Amino acid sequence: xxxxxxxxxxxxxxxxxxxxxxxxxxxxxxxxxxxxxxxxxxxxxxxxxxxxxxxxxxxxxxxxxxxxxxxxxxxxxxxxxxxxxxxxxxxxxxxxxxxxxxxxxxxxxxxxxxxxxxxxxxxxxxxxxxxxxxxxxxxxxxxxxxxxxxxxxxxxxxxxxxxxxxxxxxxxxxxxxxxxxxxxxxxxxxxxxxxxxxxxxxxxxxxxxxxxxxxxxxxxxxxxxxxxxxxxxxxxxxxxxxxxxxxxxxxxxxxxxxxxxxxxxxxxxxxxxxxxxxxxxxxxxxxxxxxxxxxxxxxxxxxxxxxxxxxxxxxxxxxxxxxxxxxxxxxxxxxxxxxxxxxxxxxxxxxxxxxxxxxxxxxxxxxxxxxxxxxxxxxxxxxxxxxxxxxxxxxxxxxxxxxxxxxxxxxxxxxxxxxxxxxxxxxxxxxxxxxxxxxxxxx
Length: 443
Prior knowledge:
It is built from 15 helices and 6 strands. The chain is mainly alpha-helical and 443 residues long. It is globular and about 65 Å long.
């Protein structure tokens, strides 16, 4: 049984990790495309319209890959996680159906109109289609996160005698206190990813001395959006999420912060340390006293429960992975703020376009917002374990007992091979689009 649970979780983790590479760019990029198009209508400067059309091509490639890689996850609910679907389908089925019926069709329909309908519709309607693509992509994130928020903090439901969850209060799904901070944190994190992509393409053009006007526009826009989004990811949305975890999942909060023993006179914040699960402590720890208590409760001496206050079965089942995921996410977020602040400083001094070391740094930082976003999701999912529905339904109770671990492993290997091909195709298509660049400006 343990092998079956492990392979079911591993397969879903792999497929959702690969899938989320794509929507985290499209959600943020859709906002920036709307900005470029709006700026064109305000100024009538052609390079803004070129930017909107260029990045919509990249958006379309990502969107297509997101659709292709998202479909297998839906099937896994019926294969590997059939019991979970049977027990909770009356609740999560509604939000997932709304995501497909409303958000996906809104996004896909108007994406086609934006790409092919500019001359037919005129510029104002073209902007409207771009806005509706943005609305659809963000609504999709809202419905998905409404599903996840219910799993993290279940509200508005009743459990029948047969173990099935039924919805008592539909509005509770969307007024869940877990939802809004998670949604805003996720969406601004996606803007960070898109900002680095846009800025890095601009840096690439400047370093190659190609498409210079577009390159400068992309770099300037990317660093401005990137700084604002990076700050919003840290505060207030990141702070709000952490406080939610401390309130509703205190065992997970202790694990992700590395608090093995409760400290009576306020909790320290750990900057560096390695969890030692044998001796129940952090090795090589560097920490600042009392800061965590102040950040969480605005009280320097507030006690925060450590892992010693909880039963073993209440703690996350992979504490090191949760701890490292959380600290990687926070560490990278801090680096993003520093890099974007430096870029904004040199932009203000009118030296950014000639700062080659910084341009190279921005270009090579592109993978790291993806890593930060993925580790953020790992924090949420590892923190919820060993539950599928926090406190109510164990992961071991949601699997499909009729699907063997061998079958799951076999299909996982198939996914790995297929997704490697898809990843290669994606890199070729995006690389070719970037190499070709926006259409040349007419002077």
